[in-house]
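All the exercises in this workshop are built on plain-text protein records. Instead of coordinates, the fold is spelled out as a row of discrete tokens. Once this layout is familiar, the rest of the handout is easier to follow. The record below serves as our worked example for the rest of this section.
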Amino acid sequence: MIKRKQRVAMRDLSTMPVADREIVEKNSMNGQVFNIFKVLANHPQLVKRWTPFAGHILSKQTLPFRDREMLILRIGWLNQAEYEFAQHELIAKRGGLSDADIEWIKTGPGAGWSEKERALIQAADDLFENSVVSDATWATLSKSYSTEQMMDIVFTIGQYNLVSWALNSFGVPLDDFLPAAKRG
């Protein structure tokens, strides 16, 4: 992963107007506000409008957990988004993805995937490289996924492509609890 220079400072939430701080703090987990939200706190109205969509993609969509995390990790890897990959590697492992799965995600569609999983990984590669899921990839995925799920595949990749760009451009530092932060 490419180390990014921090360009946008993390806000001290205690110095923010209460209404803005509450917008940001709604995204805390177990009482902790992650670094991404401390950076995004520089634009509370963006946080307010973006998080409902991000919440759908992260927890309310139609894809199974494993499939969603594979897509997120692959697009994060392709974008060399250290923060994104580290966060979702931890989430994915807690949800049952193995170290071998993570290595295969890094390798890409040529690893030892099933046909369906290979097509998932290929969908991320297709969108990253060509801004469209290829006909062959679409046809393979369509054997296993409904139209709604196909839409969630594209929007998951797109959402985390956007997030990767933001994380990389802003230089959001890894949260202290991430294993990669302890190695780094």
In short: The two ends are 11 Å apart (CA to CA).
